[in-house]
Amino acid sequence: MKMIYVWDLKLVKYNCFTHQKKFIETKEKYPALVAGYGSGKTLAFCLKALAELGRNPNKVILLAEPVFPMVRDVLQPTLEQCLTDLKFGFEYKASNMEYNIKWGNGKGTIILRSAENWRRWAGLNLAGFAIDEAALLKDDKAWRMGLSRLRDGNHLSGWVATTPEGFNWVWEYWVDQSKNGYNLIQGKTTDNKFLPPEFVESLKENYDEKLINAYINGNFVNLQQGQTYYSFDRKENVKVVNYEKNKVIHIGMDFNINPITATLFHISEGYNERKIQVFDEVKLYHSGGKDLMTQRIAKHIKNKYPNSQIICYPDPAGKAKNTNATHSDHDILRKEGFILKVPNKAPSVIDSVNAVNKALEFTIIDNRCRGLIRDLEQVSNKDGTREIDKSNSELTHFSDGFRYAIHWLYPVRKPTTKSFMA
Prior knowledge:
Elements: H1 18-25, E1 30-35, H2 41-55, E2 60-65, H3 68-85, E3 89-93, E4 98-103, E5 106-114, E6 128-132, H4 141-148, E7 157-162, H5 169-176, E8 182-187, H6 197-206, H7 209-215, H8 234-237, E9 249-254, E10 260-270, E11 273-284, H9 293-304, E12 310-314, H10 329-335, E13 339-340, H11 349-359, E14 363-365, H12 370-378, H13 397-409
Parallel strand pairs: 1-7, 1-8, 2-5, 2-6, 6-7, 9-12, 11-14, 12-13
Antiparallel strand pairs: 3-4, 4-5, 9-10, 10-11
Helix pairs in contact: 1-2, 2-3, 11-13, 12-13
């Protein structure tokens, strides 16, 4: 049976960039496309799948995203766009997220899965498998499961396409401990000449220099080890800050039985200027008995700063976690007159930490806020991950509360592109 590859059809339709074409056409067993946002990774990822299907007619290829919503919102639309543009015939079985694809005299199957449920891949016989945005996975378990299922095809292959997320397992496999067949192909956001100019400018506005090197230039940088809030610089960020009674008080609050903490700050915004001014912090320990910690900290702040408008950005978990039998922490704060700004669920640690690192470029903190300063200097990531290490019970309380506030006020916003440029 003749094998018809994607590039024999209408690959030119997509005006593929050099890094995309190298990735799609490589015959290396385990290639990785590591590139910046908007560089066309998901498009190349899907075209690579069709190329491998051409090498393996009548066989099955599995494509995965880290979580199911990404399958639905990113991978599936891009794959269907490719199939439609290249005039492949296909039938979709929703019950199994399965595409039965036909071309010329050939046919094959692509199934879509989430990598977080990698255990469910057991029993599959695959010619190929691939993980999009693989660096978002905390370990290589999904990759290793995929390798174990490569057993039925003419050209058994696995591949990934991802934005780099530091020195994690992707870096180890394709850079630090690269073995025969592991081929790294890199690209930049700026390689995509079809992006509007404001796309790159938006990335630069939202990310600090270290993340720009990763998310625009497609380079591996250290995001896993050492200081979580690496943009903090005591010389630059610690200045004299005074409370101004005519300004709104903003509060980042972290709920704990012992202690409960609050970080108080003002926001100044003018023409081409933005400033976060942290002027105070509060840390209270449980006094025993039926001490209502949330109520006590709210009254403490109101007594210290009477007649001030207070906007609080609390731990989202406070919606359900009760400090007594009848009222949630959020209910108590509202009863005390606080205006609450809170999402339905806790923000992504990566996104909220990125937001704080960017915000530290325009944040000053009074020296008396020693708890927040110590957190920003000493909180670190768990080794090899972007998860915050919480093994020291004295740390993370102030920075977590501050992180909730900053994520609400100044979230990092990844600009969007059409699905075939994802």
